Amino acid sequence: LAYCPCFDYPGYIVNEVNSSRYIYLRENSLEWNNPRMQSGKGNCCGMSCCELVVMDDVTVLYFDDIHFDDVRDNTRKCNECKTFWCGGRGEQIIIDSRFCFGMCKRGRGPLTCIPSCCPDLCCPCFVKSELWVEDAKTAVEKIIMERDGARQRLSM
Question: What torsion, rounded to 10 degrees, do the Cα atoms 69, 115, 57, 77 define?
């Protein structure tokens, strides 16, 4: 929890989010839950002004997916200090697919080639997945090892 209470969520919601979060590294896939918070049901246009609820956001990514190329630690700088003062979800891992020496990213729909310099807000069609873990360096090593092992078993 953060030491500036105006920046952190209530304890009950933080505990519920943390108890819903998981990562499974399977023989041929990676599954994780990044739960999200939203307003609970209430009387103000169907929403509560005071209560939050947790909604699960489960993702399964198979190792033979063409978008499972780049697995990297994308933890913010000074993460421990920022988490201490402002709260946080842990260390971040990004899974995406870059090509042309990292200058382009894969996208969905009509934009399948997007320059890496474009921000996510301008181009929401990026194919990118985010995971939040305690130790990103170790998690990246394990994910890459399992992915490469699965690709060898599948002769890819």
Answer: 90
In this structure, what token pair is assigned to residue 54? 């947790």
CA–chain centroid gap for 108, Å, is 18
Could you give the CA distance from residue 78 to residue 84 in angstroms, rounded to a whole number? 10
Residue 148 C-alpha from the chain's centroid = 21
Q: What is the pLDDT of residues 8-30, one digit of tens each?
A: 677 888 888 889 999 999 988 99
Compute the distance between CA of residue 21 and CA of residue 40 in angstroms, rounded to an integer: 19
With beta carbons less than 8 A apart as the criterion, state whether 135 and 91 touch: yes
Rg (CA), the chain: 18
Residue of 137 and 87 predicted with greater confidence: 137
Distance separating the N- and C-terminal Cα atoms of the chain: 44
C-beta neighbour count of 133 within 10 angstroms: 21
How many C-beta neighbours within 10 Å does residue 139 have?
20
The pTM for the full model equals 0.77
- Quote the CA–CA distance of 155 and 23 in Å, as a whole number: 25
Distance CA 64, CA 111 (A): 22
